[in-house]
Design brief:
10 helices, globular, 8-stranded mixed beta sheet, Rossmann fold
Length: 268
Amino acid sequence: MMRKKILKWTRLALLIYALLGILIYYLQDYIFFQALPVSRSHKYNFNIPYREVNIPYTETENLNIIQFQSAKPVKGVVLYFHGNRKNISWYARFAPMFTKHGYEVWMPDYPGYGKSTGKITEEKLYTYSLQLYKLAARKFQADSIIVFGKSMGSGLATYLASNVHCKRVILETPYYSLSSVAQHFFPIYPMELMTKVKIPSWEYLKHVSEPVTILQGTGDMIVPLSNALKLKPFLKKTDEFITIEGGSHNDLRDYPLFTQKVDSLLKL
């Protein structure tokens, strides 16, 4: 009798495990990419001057880029790859951190975010990052281009920097790989196999020749410090890994150490 009960509960547990795994697999785009699309006619209302650029990728897919302008003499551009939430309008508040130093800030929206259309794939994210760089290279020399990645965007920034030349790379709350972050949230599933978009930042970081600065909070509940620390073995001796005590995933800008460090890098 006891054996039958054990078998019954084991089968039920396995069924639940399998059903939840299937659910996670098919809903992962909604879980990991919290996009907020807007219509092509939508008018952004930013507090700083900007230009809007739309690049047709295919007949039905569009890459939307907002180019925030600086009131000071322009000395370069920051290619800013944002996180996985909403769209550019959520991250526009960070642009003045760079424009006050004379940098333009070019932010692309990922497929399905804002006015960018199409379906997210890892290859398309890489292609869009390269397209942004090509556009910037028409106006700026490589030594005037800073590549900045926040959260999910840090993996794209690392990929781009491993394939092109730039002045430096700044990564805010980066991850070892996107699949490893998924593993943190779903530890009982083989997320390396289940995750469609993996973005192995560690692999690309090995091939970045420019200076790299990583800024990570100790209280980050989205990308744990332990995950980001796995990137340290792939940094060059001259690179930096700066730990911000008490900082979480979305509030590093509130810490003087973060702003002082970014300001110092932008003054170089």
